[in-house]
Write a structure and sequence with these properties.
Blueprint: E1 5-10, H1 13-29, E2 33-38, H2 41-45, E3 51-55, H3 68-75, E4 78-82, H4 95-105, E5 116-119, H5 122-130, E6 136-139, H6 143-146, H7 157-163, E7 170-174, H8 194-197, H9 202-229, E8 235-238, H10 245-251, E9 258-260, H11 266-271, E10 273-278, H12 283-289, E11 293-297, H13 304-307, E12 317-319, H14 322-330, H15 350-360, H16 369-389, H17 394-407, H18 409-412, H19 415-426, E13 430-436, E14 439-444
Parallel strand pairs: 1-2, 1-3, 3-4, 4-5, 5-6, 7-8, 7-10, 8-9, 10-11, 11-12
Antiparallel strand pairs: 2-14, 13-14
Helix pairs in contact: 1-15, 1-19
């Protein structure tokens, strides 16, 4: 086995950092050197050695891709293992429609023979294999879902209590209505942004906007009704990162048994909940994997073909009225169904699968220590300079605040703590060190 340098980028800390902690820990246990970093760090300052890049941020645009970053990585001797954080759930009733969206999202035919495509499941694998793809395609699943397996839960005990401020046994509402309750960035309405315009025809875009409005209306009414009819129940509302939490705080400010929680890790709130109420949210799958009660609220007047990937709405107990939701919450034995999500996530053993692939790679690679120190110094200076300059450019400051909301630097700063949690599973001698403001390094502990 050869030791390899592995790059694991982070774009949205609250979604990705725990999975990066577990994967980097396992790779270090396997003898590899891992850098976990803000996704654009090495694009700006150069790459500190050849290795393996596992992630999706090599492409910064939808099809057709801007390949500048990819070519720079290949020039630096890096193999790209394309692994999309959002490669499973799209509008449409079946694989034919899902694959159409997958094709708009990424063109993996640009990858070379030394690259790989790491697919979540069978339908993605079959789609990629039909294309003229030089890179090998492997079904590995997604670490973001594997860590919800029940056997992982004891590892998070104290961490989860801290993240939820000791809240437990609550009704958890995870919302995802960013089209109508968006966090303003200064760049206009998201319905006119690339996330919608690249995938959805104009008429359908505005239909999506109206349908999310219908769902938001139903969820606000449902939460208020439960809070008022059952004041003994504790309710936690967790908005999607693209949503503005102020709306929910103001709407529910007079309901003392409703807490709006938009900080920290979603997994902690799921693991300590009694049940999850959702519509079209991937947390339904995470809760289902964690063996939590899931209640999927699908009002009769909501049109799922526009506002919701259907795979996410046939999980748990699927109900259509407020009263049915309340009865499902009060009934601890409510029937649960897995639904069809295993078609999109065909493995829950991703960490070991990726480690095995990395260890099989014959041509070992490592860090250029002098280059890494230079990058660390330049990035630290750049970080401080940007912090000083942004307040003088209000439009840029608004954009940066949104980026910081996604990246969540305070959460990123806790990476070593997350690796310690992960290493309870393997209990191996590894080192975790901060090498730059936006980069951590995880590697085997040197022998004495």
């Amino acid at each position: 086995m050869s030791s390899n340098l592995v790059y694991l980028p982070v774009e949205v800390s609250r979604r990705e950092l725990i999975s990066r902690a577990f994967l980097s820990c396992r790779l270090a246990v396997g003898g590899h050197d891992v850098l976990v970093f803000a996704s654009d760090l090495f694009d700006r300052f150069g790459w500190p050695g050849p290795g393996i890049y596992i992630g999706k941020n090599v492409f910064r645009s939808y099809v057709p891709h801007d390949l500048r970053f990819y070519h720079a990585m290949k020039k630096a001797g890096i193999d790209v293992w394309y692994h999309d954080e959002e490669a499973g759930f799209f509008p449409g009733e079946g694989p034919e429609q899902w694959q159409e969206h997958l094709g708009r999202r990424s063109d993996v035919s640009v990858l070379g023979e030394t690259d790989k495509v790491l697919a979540w499941g069978r339908y993605q694998h079959d789609y990629y294999k039909r294309k003229s793809v030089a890179a090998k395609v492997h079904i590995v699943g997604s670490v973001n879902f594997e860590v919800y397996r029940p056997e992982y839960a004891p590892l998070f005990g104290e961490y989860d209590r801290e993240q939820t401020q000791c809240e437990e046994d609550y009704i958890l509402f995870n919302t995802r209505f960013g089209a109508v309750n968006f966090y303003y960035t200064g760049k206009g309405h998201p319905i006119n942004g690339p996330l919608f315009t690249s995938f959805v025809p104009d008429l359908e875009r505005f239909d999506t906007l109206s349908q999310e409005g219908v769902l938001l209306y139903h969820f606000v009414g449902l939460i208020a009704e439960i809070a008022l009819r059952h004041p003994e129940e504790r309710i936690v509302v967790r908005p999607h990162p693209v949503e503005n939490p102020v709306f929910y705080r103001q709407a529910f400010e007079m309901l003392s048994n409703v807490l709006v929680a938009d900080k920290g890790d979603a997994g902690s709130w799921i693991r300590r909940s009694r049940c999850l109420v959702q519509n079209g949210c991937t947390t339904a799958i995470q809760a289902n994997i964690a063996r939590k009660t899931v209640i999927t609220f699908v009002p009769h007047d909501s049109r799922l073909d526009r506002a919701t990937p259907p795979l996410l709405n046939d999980i748990g107990a699927v109900v259509a009225t407020r009263e049915e939701v309340i009865q499902a919450i009060l009934n601890p034995d409510v029937d649960q169904t897995t639904g069809r999500w295993p078609v999109a996530i065909s493995s829950l053993h991703t960490i070991d699968a990726i480690e095995a692939l990395v260890s099989e790679r014959g041509n070992g690679s490592g860090v250029d220590e002098d280059q890494l120190r230079s990058i660390a110094w330049r990035s630290a200076v750049d970080f401080r300079a940007r912090r000083l300059a942004y307040p003088f450019f209000p439009p840029k400051l608004a954009e940066v605040r949104m980026q910081e909301r996604f990246f969540d630097r305070s959460f990123f700063n806790r990476f070593s703590e997350l690796v310690s949690i992960a290493n309870k599973r393997w209990t191996a001698p590894i080192n975790v060190e901060r090498v730059a403001p936006e980069c951590w390094r995880v590697r085997p502990q040197p022998r004495a």
